[in-house]
């Protein structure tokens, strides 16, 4: 009997070891496959949208390290402290170096475009002035006298150039929100149009005025005025193409986050794919709740727990019944699947009960803490100067009484990686300064807020990758799908054209609203 037990334990250990080796082999195979899956199919085009420099997305490793801790880890503490441990591999170092090279290339491209635009803008504003001053410098004695009409044209040129300067500053001199992977087509066309326009004016000026040394100075000034007028019309064209054209909604886009399925709908006008992606990202940080990977591990841990409860004993010898073991495990998993929905139901019910319980404790603790604060009036501040505190000191004084309840609630709802002790103290000080209620203070922690609500170094993703089968400079069309990828998840965007709506009118005569009362014998009227 002891020999049988030893044999069973040996085979059990062998099965356990073989299961681990298969798992390790499978993980290695998936790791080798992952670079190919990340790049997508060959038919897709992948480009990068890089936002202004900021810290990368943090907090994920800390959340993974803290998942295995017990919920009662803060029984004897009165303050919240946040620590994180990060490890880096050779692949991460190579990826980081590649990102740095890409960022250097994007910065060079951005500064080159700004330099070209600045030089062209300076040429545009100096050209009318040069047209007026060059005859005065080169052949001033031969020029005809400038009369009243000519002097009035000087004032016209000055004010038109001032208006053009203000309009150019308002339309073009803006801080860039992102680095797009390709050039903005309409902006490049406007720059080319302005260059050709100014070049043609200089060519005509050199041939007809400089070579012949025209003495009609009023005609030369009138020529400069016509240039400024044409530049103003080009500026109006730029406003129409860059600002007004995209205002009318033409498409509806559905944005779905790949990890948890959260979705939003937005209306867009005539935009290119890359500019539509930029609008989607701007709305994402404002409308979507913050991405919390800790909430997605429940189903994985539940499946792992179910599979861990299955034990297979090989009594026929190693290597003889591998396919039989697989069929046995699949059959056992199918039998356990019938009862897994009950486990899921009771697990979610227990989690909701614990969340409600700790939420109630947190609300009571915060309300009691706020009762110890009283705003002093002007006459009361002169009576007891030694007892006065600023908002920061008051927040530090009442924080320990609510720290334990807040800490346990954040751990239960798995939000601890997004709220550090310093951020909580700052928010508490802000609420005290503005005389806000305990309910207003708790709103940030009881309900997951948008991504912009949290610290920048915890949510801001430095780099997004735009994957599209169409060219990113092409306009939106019905049925186009593109993907925005970052480090932890992706946003799938589906474009649908707003349908044409036909409305008809029907006139109702107000005199036609006449009614009669129908009486029946069984009614109570």
UniProtKB/TrEMBL annotation:
Residues 1-86 are annotated as: Disordered. It is a multi-pass membrane protein. GO terms for cellular component: plasma membrane. Residues 1-10, 74-86 have a biased composition (Polar residues). The chain crosses the membrane at residues 111-133, 153-172, 184-204, 224-244. Its main location: membrane. Residues 19-35 have a biased composition (Basic residues). It holds the Pfam family Strabismus. The keyword Membrane applies. Belongs to the Vang family. This is VANG1 protein. It comes from Neodrepanis coruscans (wattled asity). The lineage of its organism: Eukaryota, Metazoa, Chordata, Craniata, Vertebrata.
